[in-house]
Amino acid sequence: MSETQSREAVVDGDEQATERIEDLRAQVDLLRSENERLRNEYARARQASYRRTALGLGVVGAVAVAGGLLFPAAREVLFVLGAIGIFGAVLTRYLTPERFVAAETGERIYAAQADSLGDLTGQLGLEPTWVYVPVEGDPPARLFVPQHSEYEIPDEAALERPLVVGDRDAERGASFVPTGGTLFREFERSLTGSLGNEPGTVAEQVADALVEGFELAQTAEVATDGDAGRVTVSVTGSVYADAEAVDNPLGSLLAVALTEALGQPVRLETTRSDDDLVLNCRWDVDESEDETDGTRGAVETDGEAPDS
């Protein structure tokens, strides 16, 4: 092959490569535009669903009001139904969310944070123990990861710093803002009443919020053993299903809520059972109070007068 032919072959190859690159760029631009279009259509479809619901409620309310005008005997009931329908239509129409975040997006964002925390705790040689400690302020708890298996809870001032160097070796570890901390405030605002005082009540409230409120899970079953200081929530269809990740958001919310209700540290363990994500929360039970109650009951029984 002559030098001229070689040069022409190189030029042809460069031109083909350039054309290939241009084709790939065009395909990337096309895919980007298509993804943007699909996202916009998805958002419009979700918003249209809310608007149709609002329209339906408005129609029901208007029909009820018209019926109240036509039928005086049932006017009071129909007017009440009409008011409910119209009020519901207004709320649904104007409280329609303008932006929807896909579950996969939130999961990937959390995965990056969990990987970073996992690498950090691993390099620091910390124990795989997650202890949620009540503190003053917002959020109402800090996540303490101890350096030793036999640990002590440091004071609140020490927990304000990421690296905890306590007065004693058993207090050393790391302290983080839990993912369930800020989520807890949204959870608290969503409650129809106040946060429960008993662990079982709190766990039921959290389970209901995970499924019905935040839609982070499909189902959630609660099992409570107050005497043993344990609450277990089995979750199916979880958005954040990684049981080995540091500070799983679902378990973190449960632990923070229990910490706030009990006013004492709560330990979190997350495991997998078949397709379920199992959230185990434990806390120390004050055995002295149980013994005192038992002694008091025995004294009262001994003090009763015998039957004649």
UniProtKB/TrEMBL annotation:
TM region(s), chain numbering: 54-71, 77-95
Keyword set, alphabetical order: Coiled coil, Membrane, Transmembrane, Transmembrane helix
Region (Disordered): 284-308
Keyword Lipid biosynthesis: no
Sequence ranges assigned to domain DUF7982 in this UniProt record: 22-283
Cross-referenced InterPro entries: DUF7982
Residues forming coiled coils: 14-48
Protein name: DUF7982 domain-containing protein
Species in which this protein is naturally found: Halolamina pelagica
Highest classification ranks of the organism: Archaea, Methanobacteriati, Methanobacteriota, Stenosarchaea group, Halobacteria
